[in-house]
Amino acid sequence: MKAFNTIEELSLEQCFELLRREEVHPFAEQIQQQYDSELKKWKIKENNDFLTCKTISDYEQYLARYDNLSFYQIHFKEAALQKIEFLFWRYNNSSIKKCNRYLNKYPQGKYVTEAKQKIKTYKRKRWGIAIFILLLLGLVCFLAYKPSGDISLSKDSLRFSKYGETLYTALITPKDANNIEVSVSPSCNWLQVERRGNQLNITADKNPVEEKHATITIRAYTTFFGQRLFSTTKDIPVCQESGMATEFSISKKNFEFDKYGNAKEDNSFILKTNGVDYSVTCSSGYVHIKKEVQSKPKSPHVVKIVLSLDTNESETKSAVVNVSSGRFKERVIVSQESGLATEFNVSRTNISASKSGTGEGKCYWVDVTTNGTKYYTRVNKKWLHVEQYSKHFEITVEENFEDVRTGKVYVSSNNGHEYTISVTQDGNPSDFSLSRTSYTFNTESDSEYFTITNNSNQPVSCYTYNDSWLHPSIVNGKLKIKCDKNTGSPKDGTVYVKCGDKKVSISIHQKGWVNCTCCYNPYVGYSTGQLWNIYYGTVLCSCCGGSGKIKEN
Question: Cα separation of 537 and 476, whole Å?
């Protein structure tokens, strides 16, 4: 036994062991009081544990905890056993097997009578379900059995025309349309069979060859649950008449066209054939064929063949149109006269354009004379544009922001003739100069003309800067420079000539009066006009006459 220090520490089991001894314990009264206190605690705990039980496992754990203890008497054992039986019955009454499980565990239980009654009820239901399943299986088998029966058709044989058509035949039986299979032998692509419910739609393509034969086989199957057991068959013989031509003719075999593609006479012929197919072809791409059917459908062909040709830009042409139907063949000869030029001329070969260009809605008109079917134009400059028509072409020129420029328009026939039209457009001059770059005038008033080289039609102007003694002007395309009389020192000036954004200049010098070298006095820095003579004293300078100035050489 566990050692203890005080009576208050004794457990219920320890108190029970001390009190049941033969000799009286000296503290028996205190131990009895401790025993009663611990017993009361145990009863409260047992009551709480019982009330918290919910499942069979909870109640079994409760019994294991409080039952069969020597020092404590369980209080809710019977109630726990009843709860366990009740819960076991609740979970084991939904089938025969579970009810038997309850009876095996509780042969004298509270719910034995109810369990036996439920077993009887479940057995009656089982037999009812089994009978229902057997009846349902019988019905399913009855519905799954699909007998083929006999096949009956509204038409026992089919004959198609050579032009092709669709014929119909009704399937009288069998009623089960889902178990019918339709096939064609021998396998062919000219005959198509489509089944729509209890009707067969049989379509034959047109037949351009000999007579054709085939057999349509209809097979109806007896099935059980979708599995084919055996079948009933019905054959439909099919025949299609021959579509090979026995009659063939064309109304015309030769055609002539001018160089522009116009027929000199009629441009059509009539094709007649009783064949299903016919062919009209030409390997030459410039010949175009149009077919105008004049016959009724499914009758011998009567077709109007219309021929048209492109404009001929080369020499004389000849083409063959092949016409055929079955074994019949014919050749139609088509000839076209040459479209090459033998005459070719243009109305102008030189054009002078202004700096601003042609402007909107304006152009330079050039007539073209040719007996060829076509002529060609091209330019060598991006600022030149050509709009070409049958008998003339129009030249437009963009505005020029640069120097005078020249472009070319090349006009050629389809037979090698060619003209070149030169287009010169005004602008800033590209060749601009004066006949001299300098000139010297004497002291007297005078004028001089200078030649201006200018390849532009732009206006020419002239001017000076602060040289008022010079008077430039443009006279009849030349530069005229006039100078005033010079009574003073020599002068230098510049005359400028401008055209567009180009500018040239000429340097002008005018002779004047300079200090006389004969009477120049270095002490005063100028010529005095006087000389010292040893015989006469001061005399006038004979070189300048006493003025101190002489003309510049």
Answer: 61
Q: How far apart are CA 501 and CA 187, in angstroms?
A: 91
Edge to edge, what strands does the sheet with 491-499 contain?
Answer: 438-441, 502-510, 491-499, 460-464
Residue 274 CB neighbours (<10 A): 16
The SS3 call for residue 307 is: strand
485-526 pLDDT per residue, tens:
998 889 999 999 999 889 999 999 999 888 888 887 787 777
Question: CA 494 from chain center: how many Å?
Answer: 70
* pLDDT tens by residue, 179-226: 778 888 888 888 998 888 778 899 999 888 999 999 988 887 877 777
Q: What is the pLDDT of residue 170?
A: 79
Amino acid occupying residue 349: T
Q: Which domains does the chain have, with CATH numbers?
A: 7-91 (no CATH), 152-240 (2.60.40.10), 248-336 (2.60.40.10), 344-409 (no CATH), 432-511 (2.60.40.10), 515-551 (no CATH)
For residue 24, give the 3-state DSSP assignment: coil
Looking up tokens 């152009």, which residue turns up?
A: 363
Quick one: pLDDT at residue 286?
92
- Taking the C-alpha atoms of residue 303 and residue 294, their distance in angstroms, rounded to an integer, is 6
Amino acid 140: pLDDT:
82
Residues 6+ apart with CB under 8 A from 295: 301, 302, 303
The predicted structure's pLDDT at residue 432: 93
- The DSSP output letter for 9 is G
Which of these, 115, 114, 94, 120, lies nearest to 104 by C-alpha position?
115
Compute the residue count for the chain.
553
Residues of the chain with pLDDT under 50: 1-2, 177
Taking the C-alpha atoms of residue 469 and residue 492, their distance in angstroms, rounded to an integer, is 10
Give me the DSSP letters along 198-226.
TEEEEEE----SS-EEEEEEEEEEEEETT
What distances in angstroms separate CA 231 from CA 144, 151, 174, 186, 255, one per listed residue? 16, 10, 11, 21, 66
Nearest 5°: CA angle at 543, between 539 and 546?
45
DSSP string, 240-306: E-----S-EEES--EEEE-TTS-BSS--EEEEEE-SS--EEEES-TTEEEEEEE-SPTTS-EEEEEE
In the block, residue with structure tokens 């005229």: 480
Q: What pTM value is reported for the model?
A: 0.51
**Residue 515 in 3-state DSSP?**
strand
pLDDT at 544: 83
Quick one: pLDDT at residue 435? 93
